[in-house]
Design a protein that fits this description.
Radius of gyration of chain B: 20 Å
Largest sheet of chain B: 2 strands, antiparallel
Number of domains of chain B: 1
Oligomer: heterodimer
Order of helices and strands of chain A: HHHHHHHHHHHH
Number of helices of chain A: 12
Number of helices of chain B: 11
Radius of gyration of chain A: 19 Å
Number of domains of chain A: 1
Chain lengths: ~260, ~280
């Protein structure tokens, strides 16, 4: 019942924000243009690497293009729905603005996360899907509906994991006044997960970047699912890691709220 | 403007820079974490390139040793410039209606911005150099042959390049910050600008790996001065076009200064002091 109410509130927030964005055409289109720019830069990094090498960890150019498309798809979706909202969490805590959210009859974390829904970033999904489709055609693949469904489920699961990771990076704001260094770390880890194909992780790196700091899962897991290299064990570990991080994020947020002094600054 | 007035103005902006430095020093935990994260960033770049090299002796004419040294220098030099943070504060003040304080005081907003950026960047530069040395020592302790030696002459040659590059980026950041006179939220502009500049500077991927024509175009911009050019100089490379690069940077600084002045003159009258 509580989950249904939260979902309704999230949908209402997104609808409100969408209507507001439509009335601010400048901000709407600037978001779209900038996101597309970011996408081209990221694609350019891979282009430059493949100008100098034939494969990375056994993935050829088209596998990597599919991987880039998948990451961009996830990037576009999370930037649309909760990225900018969660980005504002430290400021809401340090300024005391969080008080307003605590007073409302809706989950304050979800409220903060989804109140800055950015429809401009949704358009980033179009070139991303273009990359995914192009690489599928170039590889001569004919995916079945089940493979496509598996891929979409993996993308959705990774969106939840990304949400949890973003929350955990920002919870220290309850303790520290300024946490821009955590943002730098997050940027580095996100970039890293984007540029290193899943097949490149070996030994302890696999544990580090797929379980402890699971940024390595974000684009690699849906890609592996699509190419049929994600075994039942890989699925179970992805589900387990997402469940564990969802729990950590919730507990950490509750701990933060409990220690929140509402002092502002 | 008389010499006395110039001296008074300089002392006022020096006070702004000192205040900004003191502000940066006040956030010690954040500064410490920033340094740790800088080291993490270098480590992640090394992991990526180890995967790309995968037994290859060279990629784009660079050995893994050269690549490791390049990233160690480029990533930390790119962190020096903190004018992006000052631009974010400026944009927030414009949106909140607090920009009036610059109008009420006898200061020039662009000069104030550059002075505040200089103070904050000075602290960050010292901290980043300490962190880079610590990271280098840790690398050398693990494997003495992992890093290439620094060229002392290149180190000296890199100083004016870094300073002029930082001035160019500060001017770009000022122009991005004052877009808040027009837009409700400039964070998307900042994300886009940071991403493009990181790529063009060579902090993301060495400029040496780009096709020759693109390298030629980039060398006519101020961006390589933020990471790639100083890193190459410090590793004993890139001396060929050095005088030309200095002239080019001077020209860019001048053009960007004029552009910043023109944009401020155009956008500032839109300020309504109402906040949002």
């Amino acid at each position: 019942m509580r989950a249904v109410k939260s979902l309704r509130c999230v949908i209402a927030l997104i609808a409100t924000r969408f209507a507001r964005s439509a009335s601010e055409a400048g901000s709407f289109w600037s978001g779209f243009i900038v996101d597309t720019l970011v996408f081209f830069i990221q694609a350019a990094v891979y282009w430059v690497i493949y100008l100098n090498v034939d494969d990375i960890g056994g993935w050829d150019k088209w596998h990597s293009i599919f991987f880039v498309g998948t990451f961009t798809l996830i990037d576009g979706l999370y930037m649309s729905f909760y990225f900018f909202g969660l980005l504002g969490v430290p400021e809401a805590i340090s300024s005391g603005r969080l008080d307003l959210y605590l007073a409302k009859p809706f989950d304050p974390l979800l409220h903060l996360a989804f109140e800055r829904f950015n429809p401009g970033s949704l358009f980033l999904s179009l070139p991303a899907l273009g990359l995914v489709c192009t690489s599928v055609v170039a590889l001569g693949m004919r995916p079945t509906p089940l493979e496509i469904l598996g891929y979409l489920c993996a993308v959705f699961l990774m969106l939840i994991l990304m949400f949890d990771l973003m929350v955990l990076i920002r919870v220290p704001a309850f303790r520290f006044k300024r946490i821009s260094a955590f943002g730098v770390a997050e940027g580095a880890l996100t970039e890293f997960s984007f540029r290193v194909p899943g097949s490149a992780y070996k030994g302890w790196l696999k544990i580090l970047f797929r379980v402890i700091l699971p940024y390595g899962l974000i684009a690699a897991f849906p890609t592996e699912t699509f190419f049929g290299t994600a075994s039942e064990l890989v699925w179970a570990s992805a589900l387990g890691v997402t469940a564990a991080f969802t729990l950590f994020a919730r507990l950490a947020w509750r701990w933060g709220i409990a220690s929140y002094e509402s002092a502002g600054g | 403007m008389s010499a006395h007035n110039v001296s008074r103005a300089l002392s006022a902006y020096a006070a702004v820079a000192r205040s900004s430095l003191a502000d940066a020093l006040a956030w010690r935990a954040d500064a410490f974490l920033g340094l740790v994260m800088g080291i993490v960033r270098v480590a992640l770049a090394l992991l990526l390139w180890t995967a790309v090299f995968d037994g290859r002796a060279e990629v784009g004419g660079m050995s893994l040793r050269m690549m490791a040294s390049y990233y160690l220098i480029a990533v930390f030099i790119f962190q020096f410039n903190q004018s992006g943070l000052v631009a974010s504060s400026l944009a927030a003040e414009i949106r909140a209606g607090l920009f009036s304080k610059y109008l009420a005081r006898p200061v020039d907003p662009l000069a104030w911005f550059l002075a505040a950026s200089a103070g904050r960047s000075a602290f960050q530069a010292v901290a980043a150099i300490v962190a880079a040395l610590a990271a280098a020592l840790a690398c050398l302790a693990l494997d003495a042959s992992i890093l290439a030696p620094l060229d002392p002459l290149g180190l000296l040659a890199a100083i004016p390049v870094v300073l002029m590059g930082m001035l160019a980026l500060a001017l770009v950041n000022f122009m991005t910050g004052i877009l808040a006179f027009v837009f409700q939220d400039i964070s998307s502009f900042q994300v886009g600008k940071d991403c493009v500049i990181e790529f063009l500077s060579g902090a993301l991927i060495p400029v040496a790996l780009l096709p020759a024509r693109l390298r030629g175009i980039l060398s006519a911009t101020p961006f390589p001065a933020l990471a790639s050019l100083p890193a190459d100089l410090m590793l004993g490379r890139g001396f060929g076009g050095y005088p030309g690069a200095l002239v080019c940077l001077l020209l860019w600084d001048f053009i960007l200064y004029l552009a910043a002045r023109a944009l401020y003159a155009r956008l500032a009258p839109r300020y309504e002091e109402m906040g949002s």
